[in-house]
Design goal:
The complex is a heterodimer of chains A (374) and B (527). With 374 residues, chain A is an alpha+beta fold. Chain A folds into three domains: 78 residues, Helix Hairpins, CATH 1.10.287; 143 residues, Immunoglobulin-like; 108 residues, Cytochrome c-like domain (Cytochrome Bc1 Complex, Chain D, domain 2, Orthogonal Bundle), CATH 1.10.760.10. Chain A contains twelve helices and ten strands. In chain A, strands 3-2-1-5-8 form a five-stranded mixed beta sheet. A three-stranded mixed beta sheet of chain A has the order 4-10-9, covered by helices on one side. Chain A has a two-stranded antiparallel ribbon with strand order 6-7. In chain A, helix 3 packs antiparallel against helix 4. Chain A starts with a helix and ends with a helix. By secondary structure, chain B is mostly helical. Chain B has two domains: 185 residues, no CATH class; 250 residues, Cytochrome c oxidase-like, subunit I domain (Cytochrome C Oxidase, Chain A, Up-down Bundle), CATH 1.20.210.10. The N terminus of chain B is likely disordered. The chains are: A alpha+beta (374), B mainly alpha (527). Chains A and B meet through helix 3, helix 4 and strand 7 of A and helix 4, helix 10, helix 11, helix 12 and helix 13 of B.
């Protein structure tokens, strides 16, 4: 009984006062772990101290006047209202300070823009609301979704240490190598930011932006999407794991094998039960954010699938909208995002879940043929 | 016989009409000014209520009060209402009341257009606010409404939002034309341009900015309208367009817009500080040139809002240098205000308190603006709470404190009564503390890595968010006190003299308090 009371108390405390259990009063920018982020940090500190110095002088004079030149103290007002020399000086001095400031800023900027001679190239694609990482020279890629449970977000469970900053599949990069990122987006503009790297760049649909980093310290680094991208903008974190080079090479080899296996699954003969099981998982990661876990959607932007004509009537139309999306709406083309197996599984699941008991199924092979015909 | 007819004609022209038609049909600059001010305060409370919803949701991590869909509608509507509904109309209201009084004109130059430009505003905001009750909800893409989030992915109400923006734009342009026509044509004999009060100067320059950029805003929303409803692809790469084009066009409007919201406050503060320092404004000519320089530079810095979109390095450098340059004229203005106070005989009635807080806090907002101008550092600041802190520091203690300072300064002239000084000082101190408590911690949140426009956040941001929310509630509640003070002042209070402030200068103090319905029917002589 007491144990239960304690647990309930701890849970309640965690729910009510996460602030106190995770007290953190960070005041300043992180210096980060890369050359770029360190240079940015020092620029930030220089300009901050310049501002503080100007502030001390200007507010100093002002507060002196406030204390010493009050009418209630019987101070008689002077009558001066211009002084050409002073006015010229306080135009020129700030200008000189700015020129001095612009020099290191320019040098840092030139360095940040130099994306040449990279060792690893990774294509980063923003989706509503997840990131896709493709290792373009290694022929594999994957999605990175928020892994914080809904229960924590809705305050039904105590929040974990990395609340909202944790994903299922982090981006893996080798330490000590120049990694170039090619950024784009599938739907709206997103922005990919890792504060510890000093890297932030917009991911724009239809265009490719470039940026780079070189991380020397192994570790896990966390950031977030920083361009408003719709409903779940606050729920698409960036997590990057920097690992030693050997570990990175082993991991890449494993991923290539796994990608190959995944492609072979298309040729396997799938049963209804297998597709339903896989479909439920794929639905949760790819579809549930909009259409909801119970298929009820959030009309009018995100229609319900439960009992909808698309998911219960013509199968070809259903395959078409999932594979090709619907232009002019938030419905994305999943043909390029999901494997044939996942596409088949999701469609089969949608046609048989939540009372949509059509009893129909589509196999990965059929999806494969459908895509080839297009 | 003819004497009777004359009296009748004079009655007709000299007193306000009775009832609602006085307000609906009025062409009197004082009535229209009053309506603008009341409208803007109503919008300030509405936009403020939305800010309270935002801060209540952000009081703790997790989703408690609203869902992300509605949170995004709140941030969007809060921004739109505060910018277009509260700050801009408040300055137009002050312009209507004070410009004719300051330049010795009988009214605005285009009185009927004046009436129309006011009455368009409630219509525009009725449309905008009604989107909250439409299927799919209100605009949810931020007050900057970046495409394609606002076009392909926008809610069905976006078209209504576009229509509302068009109407507001027409209203602003007509208001600006009226201000320019009044200032250039109706000045009292002897008032040369370089003898004009600074509030008139800053409004003249603001009006030119409005005429230059409101059509650009109208253009960009029209392009959205075409993309949404008529199948064009201005902002859609799959049809040959470019989402970044939207941002270039929007910020070409947007950056001068931020000066539209601050320049008239510069002008008002340049009257209030000398009045309560009992000493002439330091550097009148350099003040005028500085405002002109700021206005010109504001047209060539727009891409500093877009340092992370991937513009080429040459563009990046140009916009960084141009932006840093704005610090020079802005610095000149701050130095001038401080030099005006230096060796004066200072007293601290409510207008002066707000004006001094304006100088200090606006300068802090200017400092963070200078930091944001450093392009490499902006990669870390961009779209974080540091930016939210920055623009609230220039808008709340900048624009809004400027408006409060003006209101207390001129309330005796408007109502004929002195406001309650004790209550006004209470209003100041509660606003000052609440505002700093709300917005200063946002600098820390941004530097620690909290993005803006998120309904929920990681645990390390919890403490400062709680502090910020407490400050915001305090600031918000305090504004009801302002309403009380103004109503009390209108209903009664100590009789105000024609010139209630011993250090004040200008033609507006030569007419009785309250200012008669018609003033300067014969123009005064300015030496």
């Amino acid at each position: 009984m007491r144990v239960h009371a304690q647990r309930a108390g701890a849970l309640l405390g965690g729910l009510m006062f996460p602030a106190w259990s995770m007290a953190d009063w960070t005041l300043n920018m992180t210096p980060g772990v890369t050359g770029t982020s360190n240079e940015i940090f020092s620029l930030h500190m220089i300009i901050l101290w310049i501002c503080v110095a100007i502030g001390v002088v200007v507010f100093g004079v002002m507060f002196w006047s406030i204390f010493a030149h009050r009418k209630s103290q019987g101070h008689k007002p002077a009558n001066f209202h211009e002084n050409t020399l002073v006015e010229i000086l306080w135009t020129i001095i700030p200008f000189v300070i700015l020129v001095v400031m612009a020099i290191p800023a320019t040098a840092t900027l030139v360095d940040m823009y130099d994306t040449t001679e990279s060792d690893v190239d990774i294509k980063v694609t923003g989706y509503q609301w997840k990131w896709q990482y493709e290792y373009i020279n290694e022929d594999f890629g994957y999605f990175s979704n928020l892994s914080t449970p809904r229960e924590q977000i809705n305050n039904r469970q105590a929040k974990g240490e990395n609340y909202l900053l944790e994903v299922d599949n982090p981006l893996i990069i080798p330490v000590g190598k120049k990694v170039r990122f090619l950024l784009t987006a599938n739907d709206v503009i997103h922005s990919w930011w890792v504060p510890d790297f000093g890297v932030k760049k917009d991911a724009i649909p239809g265009f490719i932006n470039e940026t780079w980093t070189r991380v020397d310290k192994p570790g896990t680094y966390r950031g977030q999407c920083t361009e408003l991208c719709g409903k779940d903008h606050g729920f698409m974190p960036v997590v990057v794991k920097a690992v030693p080079e050997e570990e990175y090479n082993t991991w890449v080899a494993e991923q290539k094998v796994a990608a190959q296996k995944e492609r072979e699954l298309t040729q396997k003969d799938w049963t209804m039960a297998e597709l339903m099981e896989r479909g439920e998982k794929a639905y949760q990661t790819a579809c549930a954010a909009c259409h909801q876990a119970d298929g009820s959607g959030a009309p009018p932007a995100f229609p319900a699938l439960k009992g909808s004509p698309i998911a219960t009537e013509d199968m070809a139309a259903h395959i078409d909208i999932v594979v090709n999306g619907k232009s002019g709406t938030a419905m994305q083309a999943f043909g390029g995002q999901l494997s044939e197996v996942d596409l088949a599984a999701v469609i089969t699941y949608e046609r048989n879940a939540w009372g949509n008991n059509t009893g129909e199924m589509v196999t990965p092979k059929e999806i494969f043929d459908y895509k080839n015909q297009q | 016989m003819s004497a009777v007819a004359d009296t009748h004609a004079q009655d007709h022209h000299h007193g306000p009409a009775k009832g609602f038609s006085r307000w609906l049909l009025t062409t009197n600059h004082k009535d229209i000014g009053t309506m603008y001010l009341i409208f803007s305060f109503a919008m300030f409370l509405l936009g403020g209520t939305m800010a309270m919803v935002i801060r209540a949701e952000l009081f703790q991590p997790g989703l408690q009060i609203v869902q992300p869909e509605f949170f995004n509608q709140m941030t969007t509507m809060h921004g739109l209402i505060m910018v277009f509904g509260a700050v801009m109309p408040a300055f137009v209201g002050l312009a209507n009341w004070m410009i004719p009084l300051m330049i010795g004109a009988p009214d605005m130059a285009l009185p009927r257009m004046n009436n129309w430009s006011f009455w368009l505003l409630p219509c525009a905001f009725l449309i905008l606010v009604s989107t909250l009750f439409m299927e799919g909800g209100a605009p949810n893409f931020g007050w900057t409404f970046y495409a394609p989030l606002s076009t392909t992915y926008g809610p069905p109400s976006t078209t209504f939002f576009i229509f509302a923006v068009h109407i507001m734009g027409i209203s602003s342009i007509m208001g600006a034309i009226n201000v320019i026509a009044t200032i250039l044509n109706l000045r009292a004999p002897g008032m040369t341009l370089m003898k004009m009060p600074l509030f008139v100067w800053t409004w003249l320059i603001t009006a030119f900015l409005l005429i230059a950029v409101m059509p650009v805003l109208a253009g960009v929303v029209t392009m959205m309208l075409m993309d949404i409803n008529f199948g064009t692809s201005f902002f859609d790469a799959s049809g040959g367009g470019d989402p970044v084009l939207f941002q270039h066009v929007f910020w070409f409007f947007g950056h001068p817009e931020v000066y539209i919201m601050i320049l008239p406050a510069f002008g008002a503060v340049s009257h209030i500080i000398p009045a309560f320092s009992r000493k002439p404004l330091f550097g009148y000519a350099s003040m005028v040139y500085a405002v002109g320089a700021i206005a010109l530079l504001s047209f060539v810095v727009w891409a500093h809002h877009m340092f992370t979109v991937g513009i080429p390095i040459a563009g990046q450098l140009f916009f960084m240098y141009a932006t840093m340059l704005i610090a020079v004229p802005t610095g000149v203005k701050v130095f001038n205000w401080v030099a005006t106070m230096f060796r004066g005989a200072l007293s601290f009635e409510a207008p002066m308190l707000f004006a001094v807080a304006f100088v200090i806090l606006f300068t802090i907002g200017g400092f963070s603006g200078l930091m944001l101008a450093i392009a490499p550092a902006d990669f870390q600041y961009h779209d974080t709470y540091f930016v939210v802190a920055h623009f609230h520091y220039v808008l709340v203690p900048g624009a809004i404190f400027g408006i409060f300072a003006s209101a207390y300064f001129w309330l005796p002239k408007w109502t004929g009564h002195m406001y309650d000084e004790t209550l006004a000082k209470t209003h100041f101190w509660l606003s000052f503390i609440g505002m700093n408590l709300a917005f200063f911690p946002m600098h820390f949140l941004g530097l620690a890595g909290m993005p803006r426009r998120i309904p929920d956040y990681a645990l390390q941001f919890a403490d400062f968010n709680m502090v910020s929310s407490v400050g915001a509630f305090m600031f918000g509640a305090t504004q009801l006190l302002f309403l009380f003070i103004v109503v009390k002042c209108i209903r009664g209070g100590k009789e105000a003299a024609a010139k209630p402030w011993d250090g004040a200068e200008g033609l507006e103090w030569t007419v009785a308090s309250p200012a008669p319905y018609h003033t300067f029917v014969t123009p005064p002589e300015v030496k």
